[in-house]
Specification:
The chain is mainly beta and 343 residues long. The protein has a single domain, classed as Autotransporter beta-domain (Lipocalin, Beta Barrel), CATH 2.40.128.130. It is built from 2 helices and 17 strands. It has a 12-stranded antiparallel beta barrel with strand order 1-2-3-5-6-7-8-10-12-15-16-17. A 3-stranded antiparallel β-sheet has the order 9-13-14, with no helix packed on it. The longest helix is centred in the first third of the chain and has 18 residues. The protein is globular. The two termini are 30 Å apart.
């Protein structure tokens, strides 16, 4: 009877993961790689994320994952130059010219740390360096700088519980995004750049997430869902509360005791009503996107390399450049942790 109740709870929680909406699930959790040798170990690492938008779908323009002039790793040497966005100061609204060469590129290099103070309780800190570029009607603008730091904790409700030969893990957590990034950069004429181009948002945001992982022999499934409650900055700007889901189907391959290779198929969905000003939606950057693509995690002893690429499979209509995909590259060192501050 007890086993039946445990399985029932797992099924219910799994369904909740599927229907709960949130934001940045795969970026927030850090547990999405599945049941691996180090998914319950303290870790320090660096992650690079690349997100690209280009081509106007309502005009039938094609989108490109690597549009001309875009460097995946960094903005290049153009610096902060003039731009042709037409916008009211402080609103973040801007009028694209529907040029096929327009694009928006968002890059983040993030230092990540995870520390287990108890075998079931992990503390996380993400420190990002953002590199944002926007090209409109032939004019390119790049803004770089320290972004908003994320601090959060996760509690492992289930930890490698054996049910019919399967290993399972259930993690629930939440945290805060601090307004540490610059959000009031201006051009040479004293006009403030749009909000989404700024390194930071200037707002305090809160988020919660839940992550369910199950592995049977060499096959595993990870489901992550989160919800983000976004605040407003000094200019009364903000982003509408957002949701996201991340699903990862993976396979574990052990060529020898020192190596573990985990190929995967990854699905990501995000939903937000876009930018807000004085508590009202502006109609800018509303987003309902679904992306799908391959990934691989390679482990050698205590070192792991993570690589994933996702391309859009669905996008709601928008008059902004379309989502063309995202690329993630990470390098981590995993500690062989055997002792905890709390018992």
């Amino acid at each position: 009877m007890r086993n039946f109740l445990n399985i029932s709870k797992l099924v219910i929680l799994g369904v909740l993961c599927l229907i709960t909406e949130t934001s940045q699930a795969c970026d927030i959790c850090g547990c999405f790689m599945g049941i691996t040798p180090y998914d319950n170990q303290s870790t320090i690492g660096i992650m690079h994320r690349y997100r690209i938008f280009n081509g106007y779908s309502h005009l039938g323009q094609k989108k490109q994952f690597f549009p001309h002039g875009v460097n995946v790793l960094y903005p290049g040497a153009q610096g902060e130059n003039g731009h042709s966005h037409t916008h009211a100061p402080g609103t973040g609204a801007h009028d694209h010219g529907n040029n096929a060469q327009d694009y928006e590129a968002y890059r983040v290099i993030e230092v990540r740390g995870k520390y287990f103070i108890h075998k079931r309780l992990e503390l996380n800190a993400y420190v990002p360096y953002t590199m944002n570029t926007s090209r409109t009607d032939g004019s390119t603008t790049s803004l770089t700088g320290i972004g908003d730091i994320n601090l959060f904790a996760g509690y492992h409700l289930l930890r490698k519980i054996e049910v019919a030969g399967a290993q399972q893990r259930l993690i629930a957590g939440g945290g805060v995004k601090l307004p540490t990034g610059h959000y009031y950069k201006k051009d040479a004429e004293g006009v403030r750049y749009p909000l989404l181009l700024q390194p930071g948002t200037g707002a305090v945001d809160y988020f919660t997430y839940i992550n369910y992982i199950i592995g049977y022999r060499k096959i595993g499934l990870s489901i992550n869902a989160s919800y983000k409650l976004n605040g407003q900055n000094y200019y009364q700007e903000g982003i509408a509360n957002s949701t996201a889901q991340f699903v990862n189907l993976f396979y574990r391959f052990n060529p020898n005791p020192n190596w573990l290779i985990v190929p995967s198929a990854q699905f990501f969905y995000e939903n937000t009503k876009g930018e807000m000003l004085n508590g009202e939606l502006t109609g800018e950057h509303q987003m309902k996107n679904a992306l799908l693509g391959p990934g691989v995690d390679i482990f050698y002893k205590n070192i792991s390399l993570n690589l994933a690429a996702q391309l859009p499979v669905y996008e709601a209509a928008t008059n902004h450049p379309s989502s063309a995909g995202r690329l993630v590259l990470g390098l981590n060192y995993n500690f062989n942790q055997t002792k905890y501050l709390l018992k």
